[in-house]
Amino acid sequence: MAATHRITVGTAVAAAVAVSLAGCGTGFHDSHGSAEGASGARKAKPAPAPKSVVRLIGDGSTAYTGAQPHLPRPERLKPGQKPPQFVVFSWDGAGEDSQKLFSHFRKVSKANNATMTYFLSGVYMLPQEKAELYSPPQHSRGSSDIGFNDERGIADTVKQLRLAWLEGNEIGTHFNGHFCGKTGVGAWSVEEWKDEIAQAKEFVKTWKTNTGLNRAAPLPFDYDKELVGGRTPCLEGQKNFMEAARELGFRYDTSGVDNQVWPARKQGLWDLSMQLVPFPGHRYEQLTMDYNFMVNQSGTATQGDPDKFAFWGDQMRDGLLKGFHRAYDGNRAPLIIGNHFESWNGGTYMRAVEEVVEYVCNKPDVRCVSFRQLADWLDAQDPKTLAKLRTLDVGEAPKQGWTSFLSGDPAPAPKGVPGAPAVKQ
Q1: Could you give the number of structural domains in the chain?
Q2: Residues 214, 220, 226: CA angle, nearest 5 degrees
Q3: 6-10, 411-415, 419-423: segment of lowest average pLDDT
Q4: Please, are residues 220 and 159 in contact by the beta-carbon 8 Å criterion?
Q5: Is residue 94 a part of any domain in this protein?
Q6: Residue 27 maps to a domain
Q7: How far apart are CA 275 and CA 142, in angstroms?
Q8: Distance from the CA of 46 to the CA of which of 20, 94, 126, 377 falls in 20 to 30 A?
Q9: How high is the pLDDT of residue 361?
């Protein structure tokens, strides 16, 4: 089975204007409304509901605002219960530029009951005039293969990051300078990866200082706690990155290539790699990423033959849908999809992704979630159940049916996980 000719590349530069931090910190399921005020002895008017907690961090670029809103509570599968079909849509580089694709797909996500993962490039939070603050491993200070940003672009990106998080989406990392090839991230040591991760966090935590936009609203999360996973540039350097990530408390990695099977832990992290799916018109399978479809259609030309744009987009859409149905009707392995906010080949891949979101995320038993939410669900499951799911091959449904296949008595759920036995008083 052939894979792809090349793996991923960087995304476009970011972009806009900050908005106020209204309505932060509601908790899970949207279940925490405003608190009811306590009545006084004379039955006075109820006290007003307390305002959302906002605790600024550092220079005020980020803030703690409470638990992230709109997060589903992970449920442990009951004996014999068929697993839901998870689909993860993710975006490398994740910045808002003049194409307004970040804001567009936020709206697409909301309209189709989906949440997604946005892998932010740290240098998209750093203005060009402050490039010297970035010291990339094995490269000269102030260098970056995807450039830096400007004040307007940072403001626009901050606005989208803020709204995305408040809507239940995940903010991961695509690191910084996107160095690939012989002198790229594949040559970095564990310690160099730790340094790169620290700098990616720092640029997010100091965007106000570095832009002078001190009156803008902060990002509504503590990035040190929010950041639990990422995808490496060009899918290179995974081994040393994963060791560094594990030591730093990350929970997953999505920098690999895998078949459509249930994920397992690798080097202590959930291996949530992108996958190979059918490539219509070809005998080999294709990676679930827009860039790889493009390379196998128009080569390195990001704007190929316009007469083929519609066909190429349909080919990507249909390949992703074939992969979806292979899992949905088969082993129910999570489908992992990666993209870039780019208008390659006339924007045909953006159209394809949108059509896939609209089709799959509204089907029964489908959950379009972020990587963090998928990791939460995996953590809540009985390890024996996950091990059994991993015995199913690509597209293989249990011959005896799901009820019989997963009818064994599961181990008790850990404390605090739905389905755990009650604690005796």
Answers
A1: 1
A2: 120
A3: 6-10
A4: no
A5: yes
A6: no
A7: 34
A8: 20
A9: 98
